[in-house]
Amino acid sequence: SLLQERKSKLILRMSKLAIFQGLLVDSNPDWSLRLEKGILLVENDRIVKRAPVSALSSILAKYCLKEEEIITLTDSQFLLPGLIDSHIHASQFPNAGLALDLTLLDWLEKYTFPTEAGLEDIVKAEQVYTRCVRTTLGCGTTTACYFATIHRQSTEILAQVCVNEGQRALIGKVCMDRNSPENYCETTDCSLSESKQIVQSILNMDSDLVKPVITPRFVPTCSRELMTGLGSLAAKHNLHIQTHLGENLRECDWVRQLEPDCKTYTSVYQKSNLLGPRTILAHCCHLDDTELEIIKEAGAGVAHCPNSNFSLKSGICDVRRLKHAGVKIGLGTDCSGGYSPSMLNAMRHAVMASNTLTFGKPESSHQPIQFSDALFLATRGGAALLDMEQEIGALEEGMLADVLLVDMKGHGATSLFGHETETDLVHKFVFLADDRNIAQVWVAGKKVKDLCE
User: Fold this and answer.
1) Which residues contact 367 (CB under 8 A, 6 or more apart)?
2) pLDDT per position as a tens digit, 257-293
3) Could you give the 3-state DSSP secondary structure of residue 399?
């Protein structure tokens, strides 16, 4: 009836709508680039319509929108899914760009553990975490998998900061009960108890943005008893799990000494019930084929952190090899092992890391990944790694509206000459862009950054 039609139109106008017209850029599930001049309609927190430009009139009529409400992109602009940082240490943000003269284990002892220990001070923690979240959001990171510290209260502050600033995040209280500094170590019972409390605390926030993630730092600092207990906690609540694996050769040797009953590093996590479809394993530079098979069978995946692997002299993770083995792969900054908190930097380093695997070999023996593959890893790949591929990672109908408005006029090096194709825009964006090119950031349909104002 006419009355019902008027009522439904009124409800539509009361909901929050944003309509974009212009170049839509994302990745296909097969890692290829998808480019389309089209319409994207956001209602409240979700993308409700993706359509060709020819459908504009019918969309305007259906949703009671006027032409002046269209956000029309210029030739230098495009929309992109929000970037997903699948491995970052918020607690190490003060060290970004510093302390990169050592390799992993010495770096942890000399620089990293002291910095993290200092965040027991909740005032300092709030300052650090606020700056970290604002910086990563400004760089286009709409979803981040954060390691905090062993301190429960500071970790709660990180969760609250993410909610306040509008960033989607997995928040992990780090667990360490052995081989750690006296002032930065827990007992097994305390670590498990505090982990249970932080899980409940974050769940009680009842936020769509933040979720807890079980976070044993890595095998050298976690006893089997602790890891097994954390595995049980994750299983009880169907939680994500994040840790480090096969980052550095000295670390791998140490694990063999610490856990002689396990044939491989990966099997320690397997025996502790820490591997599953929501497990995020950072680095994985030094794994054999049996380990890749264990990871694939468990449905777990890898957070590739190329900047960190270069900066700490750890090794190279072969993305093509992981893909061929059927392992899920996302991309991480690993700030501050990686010196940059920007996912654009991580994308560039992913291409460079793959390029290095061709050195000294016949040109046909290894096909390095391209810029389009790196973009996939930072979006759809990360979403799959987080077991959220139905929710984020692409500009698809029904997905959460985590969207970036990119403008190539952001600075001189990215400004266009006029001869560039649509593919060229994305190519140039991956290799030259920075936070000045991220003109707008939307998380769950809410604008959290705007350089256009």
Assistant:
1) 320
2) 999 999 999 999 999 999 999 999 999 999 999 999 9
3) coil
Which alpha helices (H) appear in 53-187, and where do they start and end? 56-62, 104-107, 113-117, 122-138, 152-165
433: nearest Cα among 88, 40, 128, 25: 25
- The number of C-alpha atoms within 13 Å of 270 and in the hemisphere containing its C-beta is 17
In the structure, what pLDDT confidence band is assigned to residue 5 with cuts at 50, 70 and 90? low
CA distance 254 to 235: 28
Q: What is the CA radius of gyration of the chain?
A: 22
CB 440 within 8 A of CB 407: no
Contact residues for 329 (Cβ-Cβ < 8 A; gap 6+): 301, 302, 304, 319, 322, 323, 377, 381, 385
What are residue 175's phi and psi, to 5 degrees?
Answer: -115, 130
Q: How far apart are CA 97 and CA 337, in angstroms?
A: 9
Segment 385-399 shows an average pLDDT of 98
Interatomic CA distance for residues 404 and 327, integer angstroms: 27
Select from 81, 83, 74, 84 the least CA-distant residue to 23: 74
State how far the Cα of 184 lies from the Cα of 179, in Å rounded to an integer: 10
Confidence band of 2 (pLDDT split at 50, 70, 90): low
Which pLDDT value is given to residue 363? 84
- Amino acid identity at 343: M
Structural contact between residues 350 and 305, judged by C-beta atoms closer than 8 angstroms: no
pTM of the model: 0.96
Determine the pLDDT at residue 365.
Answer: 82
Over residues 47-82, the pLDDT tens digits come to 999 999 999 999 999 999 999 999 999 999 999 999
